[in-house]
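hiii, so i know i said id send this last week but things got crazy w the move. better late than never?? heres the sequnce for the chain we talked about at the cafe, plus the structure i predicted for it. fair warning i was half asleep when i ran it
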Amino acid sequence: MTSESFRRVAKSRSQIAESSNCPKRSALPYGREFVSGRSPPAAQCSSFSLARALELALGLQPNLINLSLSGPDDPLLSRLLDRVIERGIVVVTAYPATSESSYAFPSSHPRVLTAHSSKVRVNSDSPFTLAAPATEVLTTTPGAGYAFLSGNSLAAAHTTGVIALLMERQPDIDAERIAAILTATTTYSAGTASINACRAVARLAGTEPCLAPTANARF
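okay and structure toks below
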C-alpha cells in the first residue's frame, strides 16, 4: 500500500469513527459481539449514529466495511445497507451470540458475509457464513487500552483482514466470489474450522497451495 493510499484509508476510518459517535438521544441500541460479560463498556451505539456512518461510507466509497455489531432490525439501516451493497461494497458482519430477534441485524441481511468463532457451531447453511479465529485475541479497547477478548466480533475482524488481502490482488472481486474462495480453502483441525488467509490468497492467485496446518493449530 502506498503512503497516499494509507493516508486515504486512515482519513476514511477517522471520518467514519467520528460520524458514528453515539449521540445522547440514542435510538435502537447496537453492541459488538463479544463473549458474554467481556464486552468493553463503551462498545455500544445507536441506529441513528450507525445511519450517519453508513451514509458517510457511501460517500467515501470503500471496497469493504466491517459492521461487526448486532441489534434489532431497522428499516432505515436496512435500506442504507442495500445501497451500500448495490454500490459493490462488501460488508462483513458478526454472527449474533443469541437467537433473539433483537440481536439479528445486520447479520440477518441476505447479502452480507457473516463471521463467527471457529470454536462455535452455528445453525446456518449459508455460503456467506464463515468461521474464523476468535478466542483470546489481543485487541484494542476504548480508552486507548488493550485486552485479550473472545467472540464473533473478533472473527469478523479477522475475516475482514483476509478479504482485504484478496481485494489487494483483485480489487473488483465480489462477495459471492469471496465467499466461495474462503469456503473452499477453509482449514479443519481438531473438530474446528477456520478460514485460511494463505490458502485463500493462493487459490485466488492460482499458485501452489500452502502447507497443511499442524495438528495443534489454535483457532
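btw The chain is about 35% helix and 20% strand. thought thatd interest u
miss u guys!!
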